Fold 2,3-dihydroxyphenylpropionate/2, 3-dihydroxicinnamic acid 1,2-dioxygenase.
Amino acid sequence: MTLAVLGASHTPLMQDGVASEDVRAAVKQGFASLAKRAEGFAPDLLIQFAPDHFNGFFYELMPSFCIGVNATSLGDWDTSTGTLPVASDDAVRLSEALIEDGLDIAVSYRMEVDHGFVQIWERMFGSFSRFPTIPIFINCAAPPLPTFKRARLLGEAVGRWAAASGKRVLISASGGLSHDPPTPSIVTAPDEVKERLISGRHPSQDVQRARVERVLAAGARAVDGTPEILPVDPEWDKAFIEQLQRGNLRDFDSLTTKEVREKAGRGGPEVLAWVAAFAALSVNGDYKADLIYYQAIQGWIAGMAMMFAESKAPRV
């Protein structure tokens, strides 16, 4: 059946980070346009690829990929808490199909997701419960990370299952593009931070407040440039978007996450989610990918992009 892709950047600084009113208005309009495209597609099912930011997944047990059979939103930053409308039976069937297709996928019956999954839906619809959902976590923040080739193969396997499901499936990616948030490294972090990266589930209000203040301060410094944060790189983002639009997804196979971190920032590998989503769509043949919005917003430490893509014609 019909497949489509919806991709959008997220950022913890969207609510309180530094940006002009014109930029905020344009972002709001971009999400409205994206919502209209999603509503027009009228999906029976949403499959979403997204990262985590050491809120739901930790180094105590860090899978490369994980499907949520049940999931709840933690409500970090400007997002809401609550239960995601997970299509649990479909999630189980998809996990079984991926194993049969050669993908070693983890499953969670109690997945916890952060703003990386839910923020874009709340910005589009005011709620993350608009469509029945299968959440798929991709580790984009805790090295060693999965390769771009592996993310592509995951996406293609998801696409094959979706295309055979008999449903209209909207495949989503949230993350990226170039951005360099002040995420600590477990290699160099002090012991108390290492412990949070290993097992930091449900931190105290004081710890949460300190984390929020640290990121807000980093965003304020990023407006004028600061040596500890790479600036958002619109040229890198443009090249990435154009490569998605060309559809030559195997060209990403030679890209390394180390290279992406060096050029697009510590959060740059979140584009793994975009590669997986577009790879899923590619199993239906050629597609047309529209760039609905893009802006390098330094105060949000985010290359904010929004895209919608549909197959040109189903592959026979």
The first strand starts at residue 3 and ends at 8. The chain has a mean pLDDT of 94. The chain has nine helices and eleven strands.
